[in-house]
Protein: Regulatory protein RecX
Amino acid sequence: MSEIHRGIITKIEQQEKNKGRYSIYVDHQFAFGISEDLLVKYRLLKGKEIDPASMETIIEEEEQNKANHYALKLLSFRGRTRQEVEKKMKEKEYEAPTIEKTLAFLQTHNYINDEDFAASYIRDKVNIQKLGKMRIKQELYQKGIDKTTVQEAINEQIDPIDEFETALDLGRKKLNSTYRNDDKNAQYRKLGSFLQRRGYDYDIIKKVLNTLVK
Structure:
């Protein structure tokens, strides 16, 4: 971008690679690029005088809009936590104030909601992958969701009886296939390790082992 100075808009040119964007020239020099929406909003026309303060405002709003669109594009692929979006934006080298405004925009319009994300994530991990709450907790912590939110979601989404029944079913299938020919000690040890890796806690694992390995 050229140095910002007061001048006259001498040319407004539609960009070749993006028909929804325009290049603004001030005093015959390229000044900045802008979306069609902002072009209309600020009524930028050839021959209009524009001062540095106005250009700064327009450029900042354009950058903010680009940041918002980038974040929305990320969320169009899959749901993300606040921390995940923030991390991606930092990798794109957006400035901190811009990132904060984007995150506020996303939260205001409920595009990101860590409580909803946690609930949905838990349901998928329980129903599809058959994981236990210990592993799910760790995965949610890694995604930047605070412990209180995670625990509340766990309490709401995971029924202890259902979790035990799922672990029991997994254990029974594993015992009847992979560990079928092992002795009791090996079955006990291997099945316990398997359920631990799946994220089940000590009490559930012990109950499953006592039920299946006799």
User: Anything to note?
Assistant: The radius of gyration is 28 Å.
